Amino acid sequence: MDILQEKDLLDQTFADGGEAELGLAIEFYGQPLLRYCHNILCDYHEAQDAVQVTFLKAYENRTKYRNGTSLSAWLYRIAYHTCIDTIRRKTLFFFTPASGAPKTHTGISDELFEALSRLSAMERSLIYGRIMEERSYRELAEIHRITEAAARKRYERARKKLAGLLRKDNRQEESSIVDWRNQHEI
């Protein structure tokens, strides 16, 4: 049985399953959910905690999952709300990486990481889901419980906002270099 068939079988049996199904869900979705949560929370250790809570909630509420629907979307929805709860609990709305967190930003530049940290959790989630995980608008809509058209529009707005932040950062950096040069000219 290949991975896709196993995932389809898991979609059909998760609600009625036990620890074996939870183990398969962790195997299939653990790392992708960790990247997703890290993208939203901008803190690796908090992302690890959020993923653990996500799987705990999924296991405890597995009877609420409808067999045959997308387990992936259901888990991502739980993860998203877990991340939002984490943010609310800490009352942080501007995110900076913790001093003890690893400096890696899942393969993205510091400038992009900084620009992403200025977006809302919803905006980061949509951008990450669409670009990094290549999710369809239908899947994003299912994860966030919005219409497909709303997912598309919110993604486009977030993408434009991110592009604007990146352009603004580049202009500010260039301006700082010019100012420094002007101050140090002989």
Automatic annotation (TrEMBL):
Keywords, alphabetical: Sigma factor, Transcription, Transcription regulation
Domain RNA polymerase sigma-70 region: from-to ranges: 29-91
Example of a GO MF term: DNA binding
InterPro entries: RNA_pol_sigma-70-like, RNA_pol_sigma70_r2, RNA_pol_sigma70_r4_t2, RNA_pol_sigma_r2, RNA_pol_sigma_r3/r4-like, WH-like_DNA-bd_sf
Record-annotated membrane-spanning stretches: none
GO biological-process terms attached to the record: DNA-templated transcription initiation
Residue span, RNA polymerase sigma factor 70 region 4 type domain: 110-162
Keyword Chaperone on entry: no
Coiled coil regions, renumbered to chain: none
Pfam families (alphabetical): Sigma70_r2 (PF04542), Sigma70_r4_2 (PF08281)
Entry superkingdom: Bacteria
Family membership: Belongs to the sigma-70 factor family. ECF subfamily.
Protein name according to UniProt: RNA polymerase sigma factor
Lineage: Bacteria, Bacillati, Bacillota, Clostridia, Lachnospirales
